[in-house]
Specification:
Blueprint (H helix, E strand, L loop, with lengths): L2 H5 L2 H4 L2 H18 L4 H5 L4 H15 L11 H5 L6 H17 L4 H13 L8
Helix pairs in contact: 3-5, 3-7, 7-8
């Protein structure tokens, strides 16, 4: 058993707010470079706000002290008609951002499980 994982929060293993901010910046770069989803991000009215909310969401959702000030997942994605391929592409982009930032396999798998658990709140809502 990995004792580090058992004694630290996911937030800490992702590098706290500083690490999550770096991961999120790389995630957004991945989305903007990805032809399957880049239009959704490129056409955003306020991409900086989207990125700030993503940092808040990941910080709060992984055990950090930050407060998420955005809408719930269903409200955020309602009417966007996100399909399964787009959802999987976003997850792949996230996994790439985590790997680029030196996040270990076990922690990446934990994040993957969390992201996968949200699919019903994102796909075709």
């Amino acid at each position: 058993m990995n004792t580090t994982a058992a004694t630290t929060t996911l937030y800490e293993r992702l590098g706290r707010r500083e690490g999550i901010t770096r991961i999120t910046a790389d995630l957004m770069k991945n989305h903007l470079a990805n032809p399957l989803v880049n239009a959704r991000y490129r056409n955003s009215e306020d991409l900086a706000r989207v990125e700030r909310r993503a940092v808040e969401f990941f910080c709060a959702g992984t055990g950090g002290p930050e407060v998420y000030t955005g809408q719930d997942m269903v409200s955020t994605h309602k009417g966007m008609n996100i399909n399964e391929q787009e959802f999987m592409t976003v997850i792949d982009d996230a996994m790439d951002a985590l790997q680029k930032n030196g996040i270990d396999d076990a922690t990446r798998n934990e994040v993957l499980a969390i992201l996968w658990s949200m699919r019903r709140e994102v796909i075709r809502v």
